[in-house]
Amino acid sequence: MLNKFFKIFLFTISLVYFSSAIKAEDTIKIAIIEPMSGPLASVGLDLIEGLEFYAERINKAGGVLGGKHIEIVPYDNAMVAEKTIQQLRKVIDEDIRYVTQGVGSNHALNIIKTLGKHNKRNPGKEVIFLNHSAVTTSFTNELCNFYHFRFDANVDMKVAALVSQMTKDPSIKKVYLLNQNYAYGQSFQAAARRLLAERAPQIEIVGDELIVPFGKILDFNPYVSKITSSGADTILTGNWGPDAARLITATANSQLKVKFYTIYAGIPAAMNSMGVKISTFNPIVQVTEAHENDPSHPDWLKEIDKEYMAFSNKSPYADRQRFMIEMFAAAVEKAGTADPTAVAWAMEGMTARGAHGDVYMRPDDHQMHFDMVLSHISTDVEKTFIYNNEDYGMAYVTDGWVDMADITLPTTCKMKRPKK
Amino acid sequence: MNNALQLKNVSKSFGEAKIIKNLNLEIKKNERHAIIGPNGAGKSTLFHLISGHYKLTSGKITLNNDEINNLEPHEINRKGLARSFQVTNIFPKMSVYENIRCGILWSMGFKYSIVRLVNGDKKLNEKTYSILEEINLKHCAHIPAGLLSYADQRALEIGITIAGGADTLMLDEPTAGMSNSETERAVNLIKQISEKRTLVVVEHDMGVVFDLADRISVLVYGEIIATDTPKKIRENKAVQEAYLGTEDH
Amino acid sequence: MINFFKSFSTWIIIAVIAAILPLIFDSSFSLTLLSKMGVLIIFTVAYNMLLGQGGMLSFGHAIYFGLAGYASIHILNGIGEETLPYFPTVLFPFIGAIVGLFFGSLVGYVSTRRAGTAFAMISLGFCEMVTAMTLIFVIFFNGEDGIQTDRMVGPEPFGITFGPQIEIYYLILFWCLVAVALMYIITKTPFGRMSNAVRDNPERAAFIGYSVRRVRWQAFALSSMFAGAAGSLHALNYEHIGFESVSVVQSGAVLFMAFIGGAGHFLGPIVGAIGLTYLDSTLADVTEAWLLYLGLTFSGIVMFAPGGLAGLIVMHGPIARTDKKLLISLIKPYCLAISSVITGLIGLIGIIEMLYFRSLISKGEGEVVIFWTEFNANGIMSWLIFIALILVGIFLSKKTFPLAKESWDHAISVVKTEISNE
Amino acid sequence: MDVILFTLFNGLLYGMLLFMLSSGLTLIFGMMGVLNFAHASFFMLGAYFAYQISKYIGFIPALFIAPLIIAFCGAMVEKYALRRVHKFGHVAELLFTFGLFYIIEELVQMIWGKVPVGYHVPEYMDFTLFSMSGMGYQAYAMFTLVVSIAMFIVLFSVLTKTRAGLIIQAALTHPEIVSSLGHNVPKVFMLVFGLGCALAGLAGVLAGNTLGTEPSMALSLGPIVFVVIVVGGLGSLKGALVASILIGIVQTTAISLDYSINNFIELIGFSVDIESLWRILIDLTISQIAPILPYLLLVLMLIFRPRGLFGNRDV
Q1: Gap from A173 CA to chain D (nearest CA, Å)
Q2: What subunits make at least 3 CB pairs under 8 angstroms with A?
Q3: Does domain B3-248 have CATH number 3.60.20.40?
Q4: Which residues of chain D from 208 to 237 reach within 8 Å of chain C, CB to CB?
Q5: CA distance linking residue A68 with residue D130, whole number of Å
Q6: pLDDT for D16-38, tens place per residue?
Q7: Per residue in A40-73, pLDDT tens?
Q8: Cα separations in angstroms, B76 against A146, A308, B5, B49, B90
Q9: C-D C-beta contacts closer than 8 Å
Q10: Does domain D2-304 have CATH number 3.30.160?
């Protein structure tokens, strides 16, 4: 009986094996490894959809290298770190030389480490990691790697942007730090402490709290009462997901007037779950690379946004995906080949058009630099946010721009480069 | 000091209800001792107390002059006391052979070993078959125990009970629910196995009791009202009133 | 000697097949997958020492798997940084086994007093605590990032560096065979037999001289030990360990594998580990609803075939032994019943896929590919087709199932009379 | 004084939420022995149904209709699935509900998507009723508190005063008794399971809008429910109430305590100077480990007092 089972097993595995062996030569493939199942699947699927859209735009405009198309190949990691490694090995097997990922820094870290070993052990078969959203600062500091490029600002840069904006607001005198007790939250906390001391010594830190992450805390009232008694006028938090939504809801329900300075607390899914009243009760300030209602939003980008809307029935949110693909296409053109090493050389120091001036890939650490916009959620907007045809009835209003120079931080990266 | 089992001032309460009240009982070595009494007299509770299933509220129990009232069931078993249950209590998914073999394992010093194998052990095998023979179940050694007839399952349970080599056996209603011929077979089996052992038996069937027992104790509402030979018990007025008398109605 | 080979022939065949496999599937992904199967086979069989052999349902067995992984990674990193003396990579499962045994003995001691639902709850409580700790004690667990390592450390005996995946595969294969063989032998020892006895009837087991708690505790500790060995190999395979590996999710996964494969039979968990690992790695790329199918399969197995897949096969053992013809006579009614179920399932899968598409993706005109065919999730026709398939499936099942049951009853009654005649 | 009162009140609010969540499971587990792993899933379904219903006909109708639908779903699960599994024992039932947990989570994602849905507090209850030491309390929170207290009173009086309740009570302490009373046991079980699920659903309706209604809420809430029923004691409604409030107050108090072992050591006049692994252990404040405390309580309770605070028999 067991032998029979093994035969069936052999047969199916061979089927899959051979079906995946078919290769198309006239495309440049980019593998994207994101959650397509499990609780974060919607985030992953939206990102995949976005990348497919931007790649398709390049292809419609004639592709790269005289007609080659960029093809996005999705892989599911189900938010399990081991599966990311497993899928990455599959990507390498299928001879895909570019891989992109962004949800979950632990997954990005695994890709960096695994590719580091692969690229060292298999010269001539290098794979480039285009990191579109994983923000752990160390990826472009001590962990930096020639074959890793980050297109989003890292935690320190985002905190720097938040702090720069805070210094512009004289009403901010007392700030309360509240973060999740794990790697990301701790690095947010450290950066906030450091940058507040450096750039805004007049602001007093009246509370500094680490909480157990990932929705384990149901009741935020005790925290709200601590914040109330501390007399804070601003909460600086890296919280995301339910940890952010419940904090903001509890604050609004107890009528506590504070400002929130956040990275992810105001993302579209969060603002919909909190609802208009809570999202706008206190200003929830967040930092991004662009948003639709910004007065300086360029016309060409508005055109692309419109196309995106028609394609996906969603308002655009992550402009970094656009400039990542555009820069990648330009780098391939510049290198004149799809060979990863050449493309990596080409991408160093490259610029591309951004929503507020050019975006710039710093060669020292492969960290993208760009002006960042601070905005808060409001109902008083020209274009409300739309997700799968559902109108959220609110969107973002610009508080101000932070110049690229203000968030350019020194890097500790000592990159080993291959020969040209 | 010829007592196999001795109970001194034993009491057991469940919350407010006192089930066993200050009970004293002596069971001599190698005798067949029956405990009788009306329903709810506390016979099963008494068994559970002796075998360590329940903990005493107060009092003392000794087995071959060793105090056992604070021990766990398996420790009491290792001291040489084995019992059967009112409801058939075997390993229904295992074969008859394996049921008996499990019963022998501890007495042959296998303990919790993970380095010895049971299948190839000749001594173990022989002992198992000798017990199967004793209880007349050799012919169906490799049938799952759950498929046996009721009477055979009871016989198997007695087999498990004696397998460990205990010298004191306690049987809880061994013939309950059996037909006449089955009962006869069971009584013969019990007589045969208790030849060199001490036997304590709870039984409702008076025929069986008077046939089997050397001495009888009568338990009524948690108290022993008489302990004596069958003949004298039959003549005891108090017993007749409390127990046997009710049978006549 | 010949007898020895006969009784082990199935095992040897499996070992040889497993040794040849990487020659056919030499891609890094297939090797990773095969290695993962090896690791999970050890873990699942170890888990089944509790669930199947000992009758204890644990929602927290990943603790020992994961902690052993963390320990191995730390030691590997220590060797790499030369703060720890060299320890041969081949012997790493021993480290995991020791870690697993230690924690298993500790937790087992307090949690094995009762079996059943109380035990399940304690295990869940421990699992939640340990998972929370992995996030809080960053210095040891490194939070949600987990820890990476490089398995190429120390000297290279015979030129084996354990860098290439194929070398890790053979390492895992070797330990998988050793561990599974050991666990098989354990079922034949006095402890193994008493473990089953305690599962079936703890009361009776106590009255044949065995401490029920001690047997359970020992089963728990041994099971944790093998789970630890698997955890070490897991860490070597991925050169990474993360908090998922100690979480309820990992514990649930191993429960699924053991139970769907068949907890009552020694080979069941192996079948489950291979099958689910394979499906998990391939189906998940094809459909977003993979977890729903898994949940449905699991609940279906609990309801209709509590013996799991292995149970279904073993169920036919007596029939095959009595008369091969009887078995053959079952094939036709079975095929009819199975094909009617499949008809209904195709319909159900179609509906699920279209619903998923509408709620999650919903772009373009609504083209969705199901069973290599394009359907329109917004068009009424495709819905009608799949609903019709479900109805046909139900209708056919109503006809064919009684037939299958009748043939089964007939076959089993023949077997019963044969037995009683003996 | 103010702080203590305030902490107690917050603890009470949180505790009553836990009570609503777990009272249903106490009934189910106590009477049927079924440890319903999917109990929190019914809570989640309650929130989603309430979201859908309140979108069309308002919150108050949802408060009644959603639990009824859940009760029906629960009863059907019992009738067509659990009853089948019953003969394989309690562990099999637990396994089935474990599978059910996955199924409900995926079904919810299939119908409502994977992002949180916008289920909000109704406007007419969204105002500050009173404030205490600077913190405002929303009318809705008080409404929830009143409903949960009413729920306890109604349940308690039904169980102690009515005939049906007495039968259930009897069954909670002596499960074998019901059949000997000649009652239709499967029907009683079906009703109890449906009722238990409905209670979880009601909790979902009331709490979904403040906790956030999303597919992962069942997973994050599930284990805490077990803690309450074990600590409270098997089948004891009173126990569930006390345990819920106890856990609520313990958690709330723990969060407001920023003390670590190190603080304590310093307080008694020593200073510890260790780097490395153990440093982080002694620097950890009570507020940081607050969420682990319930599970610690669960494990300790099962080890040292398996019958819980008010139970009559072991788990």
Answers
A1: 19
A2: C, D
A3: no
A4: 223, 226-227, 230
A5: 67
A6: 989 998 999 988 887 788 889 99
A7: 777 888 889 899 999 999 999 888 888 889 999 9
A8: 72, 79, 12, 11, 19
A9: 130
A10: no
